[in-house]
Structure formats: structure tokens, C-alpha cells
């Protein structure tokens, strides 16, 4: 009898054929064999403790590499944990594929092992979901799910592989022809992300920018994903228009560029009359593009890959297209009739003055060595250590938390694109270690530095074992202020009732030994409370390129409740 292979092997072969190089996940029935077969075909499988983190890792991998980040889960609860990663990928619009095993098709509705209608469960969080109902469909399903993740606006996609399908068999030769067929079909169906950008819209955009008195260029992680940095640089330098990145747009142009408006953010968005917004959504992070933060007369030029986004926001001018492609055309068109505001232009000058004022106030605060640590002192030391470590490509910075993330965003300096991964559009806590693992796997030559609130860190802290197991060069710095936002801030009348002896809902055990948890797995742990201790822990761990946790003791009352978002709490 000719040699036969099962669905697990065919799925692994399909993933390899369609270019998957890394996979994240948690194994178990019925997908363990899929993972081991994938490894034997050359795919690196990073095994996690929890599917949430594996999903976060896959999504960040998708963002960093522009290829779908793939993660594998078991059925039922594994799939449900994975929804965290899938939904966060959708919120961030990062190309991500969750593959889950599911129960036997014949036993559906009878309470099979880990049974769940997974296609229904993933629906709100995916742009495409498909179930292979027979082994012969596997190669084509794999091709489709990978393609949908990256086409148009990227996002989460799902592939369901029932146990019976994973156990079905086909002959080697049949498998080969299924793989060939799927490849041919994928070539034929390949979608073209390069839309036809209307020339009249480009002309209109240029005319708006040319006649604006106070123009602004805003860009976000969509532009970073599109690798639009060179074209953005050209546009900014050609026109002399100040720019403002969203948090993960930071680094597309260096934070210390003379036209950076981040330190004059309020003025820039409050007073600009024309704003070209590229690969960033006018959502809460940009105050919906509305007053009072923005002027009521501002004209938005919105560049986005998704026509739905443009329909939703109703900008003055909407241009549907890939950020890099649209910028290429804009730059080409401007060339024939160049204009540049120059540093003496009143708007550029006002932004620059305001920036310098704000920056020097900040530097004065940062220059002080405050012990017990506030947030600023250790953040300055970390900033300087990262800059001093330098290297090109630069280290990737991962950040989450409330105060810790907000202070980090203002203080840490990004000079290269896609070097900042944070809680993102949803403000999701728990993403940090997954993002660290993704960055270290996607960029094996780089250092990864995580700057994390103790609460944010704790959501996925067990994944430090994963760092040690794969020996990834990740230095996780925990800002340990004993809780969510820090110490117990309840007023006397709030501390009452039968449970008044309980710690506050925001409090953790004080002085938790996060560094010893890392040491328990054989990684390096540091406990630091002074500038000198922190400096020495940073330089040692950065150069060691080994997994490390630095437990930084912060004054529990140094931060504020909800960090920057106090008005929402
Ligand atoms: C998944 C998820 N759960 C809960 C929250 C609510 N939340 C916002 S910030 C935060 C933690 C803030 O504490 P920490 O990370 O220690 O930062 P700090 O302000 O203390 O520096 C939490 C729990 C969230 N954003 N995401
Ligand atoms: C001052 O600079 C910080 C950091 O760049 C920024 O977050 C803040 O919004 C700036 N303040 C104003 C008023 O623009
Ligand atoms: Mg905290």
C-alpha cells in the first residue's frame, strides 16, 4: 500500500509550503502532532504557557514582519484563551491567524471533549474564518486563511481543524497534488493591495497642504506596517511640515527630528488647519478628530487602506490606499512644484518653540535623581542605557502599564521604525511578554527591552520561563509599585464594611520578588532601588543578551490613578 499521511502532517506541509516560518502556541489534543510535524519541516514552534500570550506574540510577529503571525491552540478552552490574541490583533489591525483543533464532527452537540462551536465563537473577532471539513480541503484552507490575514486591512483570521479531519489519511501522492492545486489556486486568487489611487485626490491633497497655514502630518502603526518610513521622511523634509506620530508610529521618523511635534502635541492638534493622517485611525487615541482637542475647522486628509474607515470618519478628503504607495505618489507629484515651509515659518516656529519649552521642563524633571524611585528617574536611566547601547537595528521597546507606559511613551526615544510595541488601540494589559517573544524571534539579532508596570507584567508573567527555555535576549524591567496604578489611594470612608481588612482592589503584595521568579527558571534576576543599581543591572543584562528580569522598586504613591486616563475612571 502506498504511504499515507494524516491531516496533521498535511496541515504542517501546507503551512511550510505557504511560507510560515514561525508558529506560536500551546499543544494538546488534537494538535500536538501538527506542532511536532511543523517543527520537523523547518518551522520554529514557540511553545507558550497560555494561548493569550501566544496570540499576542503571533499578532506582533505579523506587525513586525508583514507576514501573517500564526498561532496554534487546542479546542474549546484553548480556542477561548486564543480569542484574546485574535481580538487584540483585530483592534490593532495586525495580520494574525489562529489555528485550532476542534472536536469530532460526528459528535457535535453531544458534549464531546472540549467541544465548542469555534467558528461561531471567533466570528466577532475575525475577518475570515474557515473550517476544513475533509482532509482534502486543508491545503486550500491554509492558503486562504493566510491570504486573508494580510489582504486589505490586515486582521485576525481563523482556521478550524476538526479532530476527525486531522486523523483522516491520504496517500503521499494525493497529498502532493492537493498541495500543488492549492498553490496554483492561491497564485490565481492573489489579491492586489495596491489600489488605483485617484490622481485628482492626490492633486487636491497637495493643494490643501500647499495652501494650509498650519499643516500637520500625523501617522500611526498602519504606516509603520506599510513600511512607509522612507516616503514619510521625504514628505516631511520636502514640505517642512511638522509631524506627530501615534504611540506605535513613534520611530518612523526619529523622535528627535527638528520637525517632531510630539512635545507640542496640544498646540499641534489644537491649532492645525489641515492634517494629513496616514495609517492612523481617528479613534479615541486621536480624540476622534473632534473639538475641543482639535480645531472645529480642521480639514482632515485621511489616507487608509480601508474604504470603510474613510466612510466611518468622513474626512474632508479621503484617499484609499496603501500608506507607502500613496506617499510615493504624493512625493512624486510635489516634486514638480516644490514647497517647503522652512524653519522661520510662523507655524513651524511656534511648534518648535513649544516643543523646546516642554522638552526642557521635562529634562529638568528628569535630571533629578529621586529615591525612592518615582517613574521619571528610572525611566531616564533606561532611556539613556538604550541610547547608549545603540546598535543598528536599534533595540525593540515593549511597554505596558498605566503610569509606566505613559511616562515611558514620553521619555523613551524611538529612532527607528517598528521599535515600539505597547498596549495599543485597546490598551490591553498582558501583551508585553508575548510581544517580547515575537520581537526576539522575528529579529534574532536585536535586543528587546520591556518596560512594564507590575500589573501589566503580571498578566503573563509565567512566560518568563518561555524566555529562558528559548534563551531569548529579552530584558524585562518591572516597575514595581505594588499594584494597579500603585498604592492604596482609598479615602477613609471608602475603607469600610466587613472586608475593610482586605487589601485595596488596586493593591498587590508589597515588594513582590519578581526577580526571584525569573531566577526560579534559571534566568537572571536583579532587584534595584537606586540609580547605580539600575545602571549596573541594565548594562550587565543588555550586554549579556540573555533573558533577565529587573525588579525596580518604585514609590507606591509616585503615580496617579489610571495614569493619563484619569478622566475615564
Ligand atoms: C486586559 C486588561 N485588563 C485590565 C485592564 C485595566 N488596566 C488598565 S492599566 C492596568 C494596570 C496598571 O497597573 P501597572 O501595570 O502596574 O501600571 P502602573 O500605573 O502601576 O505603572 C489595568 C489592570 C486593561 N487595560 N486590560
Ligand atoms: C509635552 O511633551 C510630552 C512628551 O512628548 C507630551 O506627551 C505632552 O502632550 C506635551 N505637552 C503638551 C502641552 O503638548
Ligand atoms: Mg503598578
From TrEMBL:
The GO annotation for biological process reads: fatty acid alpha-oxidation
Q: Does the keyword Zinc apply?
A: no
Which EC numbers characterise this protein's activity in its record?
A: 4.1.2.63
Q: Which cofactor does it need?
A: thiamine diphosphate; Mg(2+)
Q: How does it assemble?
A: Homotetramer.
One GO cellular-component annotation of the UniProt record comes to: peroxisome
Similarity comment text for this entry: Belongs to the TPP enzyme family.
The Thiamine pyrophosphate enzyme N-terminal TPP-binding domain extends over 11-120
| Lineage of the organism | Eukaryota, Viridiplantae, Streptophyta, Embryophyta, Tracheophyta
**Keywords linked to the UniProt accession:** Lyase, Magnesium, Metal-binding, Thiamine pyrophosphate
Query: Which top-level group of life is the source organism from?
Result: Eukaryota
Listed GO molecular functions?
2-hydroxyacyl-CoA lyase activity; magnesium ion binding; thiamine pyrophosphate binding
InterPro entries (alphabetical) = DHS-like_NAD/FAD-binding_dom, HACL1-like, THDP-binding, Thiamin_PyroP_enz_cen_dom, Thiamin_PyroP_enz_TPP-bd_dom, TPP-bd_CS, TPP_enzyme_TPP-bd
* Catalyzed chemical reaction(s): an (R)-2-hydroxy-long-chain-fatty acyl-CoA = a long-chain fatty aldehyde + formyl-CoA; a 2-hydroxy-3-methyl fatty acyl-CoA = a 2-methyl-branched fatty aldehyde + formyl-CoA
User: What is the recorded function of this protein according to its Swiss-Prot or TrEMBL entry?
Assistant: Catalyzes a carbon-carbon cleavage reaction; cleaves a 2-hydroxy-3-methylacyl-CoA into formyl-CoA and a 2-methyl-branched fatty aldehyde.
Q: Which residues form the Thiamine pyrophosphate enzyme central domain?
A: 202-328
Protein name per its UniProtKB record? 2-hydroxyacyl-CoA lyase
Amino acid at each position: 500500500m502506498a504511504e499515507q499521511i494524516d491531516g496533521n502532517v498535511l496541515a504542517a506541509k501546507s503551512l511550510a509550503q505557504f511560507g510560515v516560518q514561525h508558529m506560536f502556541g500551546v499543544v494538546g489534543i488534537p494538535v500536538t502532532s501538527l506542532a511536532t510535524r511543523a517543527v520537523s519541516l523547518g518551522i520554529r514552534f514557540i511553545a507558550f504557557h497560555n494561548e493569550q500570550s501566544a496570540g499576542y506574540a503571533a499578532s506582533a510577529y505579523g506587525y513586525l514582519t508583514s507576514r501573517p503571525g500564526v498561532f496554534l491552540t487546542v479546542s474549546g478552552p484553548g480556542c477561548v484563551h486564543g480569542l484574546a490574541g485574535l481580538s487584540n490583533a483585530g483592534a490593532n489591525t495586525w495580520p494574525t491567524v489562529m489555528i485550532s483543533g476542534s472536536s469530532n464532527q460526528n459528535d457535535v452537540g453531544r458534549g464531546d471533549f472540549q467541544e465548542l462551536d469555534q467558528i461561531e465563537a471567533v466570528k466577532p473577532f475575525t475577518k475570515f474564518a474557515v473550517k476544513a471539513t475533509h482532509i482534502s480541503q486543508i491545503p486550500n484552507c491554509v492558503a486562504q486563511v493566510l491570504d486573508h490575514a494580510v489582504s486589505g486591512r490586515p486582521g485576525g483570521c481563523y482556521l478550524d481543524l476538526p479532530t476527525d479531519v486531522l486523523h483522516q489519511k491520504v496517500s503521499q501522492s494525493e497529498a502532493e497534488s492537493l498541495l500543488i492545486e492549492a498553490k496554483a489556486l492561491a497564485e490565481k486568487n492573489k489579491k492586489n493591495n495596491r489600489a488605483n489611487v485617484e490622481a485628482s485626490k492626490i492633486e487636491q491633497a497637495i493643494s490643501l497642504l500647499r495652501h494650509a497655514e498650519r499643516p500637520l502630518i500625523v501617522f500611526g502603526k498602519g504606516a509603520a506596517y506599510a513600511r512607509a518610513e522612507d516616503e514619510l521622511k521625504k514628505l516631511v523634509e520636502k514640505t517642512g511640515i511638522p509631524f506627530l506620530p501615534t504611540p506605535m508610529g513613534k520611530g518612523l521618523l526619529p523622535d528627535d527630528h527638528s520637525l517632531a511635534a510630539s512635545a507640542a502635541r496640544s498646540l499641534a492638534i489644537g491649532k492645525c488647519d489641515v492634517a494629513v493622517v496616514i495609517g492612523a485611525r481617528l479613534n479615541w487615541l486621536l480624540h476622534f478628530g473632534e473639538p475641543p482637542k482639535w480645531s472645529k475647522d480642521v480639514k482632515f486628509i485621511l489616507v487608509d487602506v480601508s474604504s470603510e474607515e474613510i466612510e466611518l470618519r468622513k474626512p474632508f478628503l479621503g484617499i484609499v490606499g496603501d500608506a507607502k504607495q500613496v506617499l510615493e505618489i504624493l512625493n512624486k507629484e510635489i516634486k514638480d512644484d516644490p514647497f517647503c515651509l522652512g524653519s522661520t515659518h510662523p507655524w513651524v516656529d511656534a511648534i518648535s518653540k513649544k516643543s523646546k519649552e516642554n522638552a526642557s521642563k521635562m529634562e529638568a524633571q528628569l535630571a533629578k535623581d529621586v529615591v525612592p524611585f518615582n517613574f521619571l528617574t528610572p525611566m531616564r536611566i533606561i532611556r539613556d542605557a538604550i541610547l547608549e547601547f545603540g546598535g543598528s537595528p536599534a533595540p525593540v521597546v515593549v511597554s505596558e502599564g498605566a503610569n509606566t507606559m505613559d511616562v515611558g511613551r514620553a521619555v523613551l526615544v524611538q529612532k527607528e521604525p517598528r521599535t515600539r510595541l505597547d498596549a495599543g488601540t485597546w490598551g490591553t494589559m498582558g501583551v508585553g511578554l508575548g510581544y517580547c517573544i515575537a520581537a526576539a524571534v522575528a529579529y534574532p539579532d536585536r535586543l528587546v527591552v520591556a518596560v512594564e508596570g507590575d500589573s501589566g507584567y503580571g498578566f503573563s508573567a509565567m512566560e518568563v520561563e518561555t524566555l529562558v527555555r528559548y534563551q531569548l535576549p529579552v530584558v524585562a524591567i518591572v516597575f514595581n509599585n505594588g499594584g494597579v496604578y500603585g498604592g492604596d489611594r482609598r479615602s477613609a470612608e471608602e475603607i469600610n464594611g466587613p472586608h475593610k481588612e482586605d487589601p485595596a482592589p488596586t493593591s498587590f503584595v508589597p515588594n513582590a520578588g519578581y526577580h526571584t521568579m525569573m531566577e526560579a527558571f534559571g534566568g537572571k534576576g536583579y532587584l534595584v532601588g537606586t540609580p547605580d543599581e539600575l545602571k549596573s543591572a541594565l548594562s550587565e543584562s543588555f550586554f549579556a543578551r540573555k533573558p533577565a528580569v529587573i525588579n525596580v522598586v518604585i514609590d507606591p504613591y509616585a503615580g496617579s490613578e489610571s495614569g493619563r486616563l484619569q478622566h475615564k475612571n
